[in-house]
Amino acid sequence: MSNCVCKDVAEHEQELQQIISRYQGQPSALIEVLHQAQELIGYLPRQVQEKIADGLGITVNEVYSVISFYSHFSVKPKGEYNVCVCKGTACYVKGAPAVLERLEKELGIKAGDTTDDGKFSLNVVRCLGACGLGPVMTVNNSAHGLLKPDKAAEVIKSYA
Ligand code: FES
């Protein structure tokens, strides 16, 4: 896994450095830098956190605490299948929490994590714009609506 991390970071080293240089010594730009770094690499491994901390003049702990506060940020690479469960209001009241719970059980991971085999990552998102079909989830670019926990588990099995 660590080789994989190094490769991902090495591939984007120069662009990452450019992003960091733009905000050199500006701790208040942390969220913006994290956002751009994740857009570039896909996730925020330790190596990237250290570079950002150095550049902005803050500690790695400060960087990590912001990453862990926002579910949008990830410290692990996305899985082959990226599962996003909507927890917007409409989906929430129609049963999204039970769907998410079932998926966490099915995949053996918590939201924000990726399975050890790199096959699935599980994320929570806010409103996918299909509230009438809630609860909704997407698997890569495919949307699945009117979910019940069992149906969501079946969808995942079809990708496994
Ligand atoms: S609240 Fe889930 S799609 Fe809008």
Features:
single chain; 160 residues; alpha+beta; Glutaredoxin; 2 domains; four-stranded mixed sheet; 8 helices; disordered N terminus; binds FE2/S2 (inorganic) cluster
Reconstruct the topology from this structure.
Elements: H1 2-11, H2 13-22, H3 30-41, H4 46-56, H5 60-69, E1 81-86, H6 89-93, H7 96-107, E2 120-125, E3 137-139, E4 142-144, H8 149-159
Parallel strand pairs: 1-2
Antiparallel strand pairs: 1-3, 3-4
Any idea what the CATH architecture of the largest domain is?
3-Layer(aba) Sandwich
* Tally of domains: 2
End-to-end span in angstroms?
21 Å
- Give helix and strand order, one letter per element, not per position: HHHHHEHHEEEH
* Spatial strand sequence of the major β-sheet: 2-1-3-4
Give a structural overview.
It is a single chain. This protein has 160 residues and is an alpha+beta fold. It has 2 domains: 2-69; 81-159, 3-Layer(aba) Sandwich (Glutaredoxin). It contains 8 helices and 4 strands; from the N terminus they run αααααβααβββα. The chain has helices spanning 2-11, 13-22, 30-41, 46-56, 60-69, 89-93, 96-107, 149-159; strands at residues 81-86, 120-125, 137-139, 142-144. It has a 4-stranded mixed sheet with strand order 2-1-3-4, covered by helices on one side. Strand 3 (137-139) and strand 4 (142-144) form a beta hairpin. It is elongated. The structure holds FE2/S2 (inorganic) cluster (FES). Residues 86, 88-91, 127-131, 134, 136 line the site of FE2/S2 (inorganic) cluster (FES).
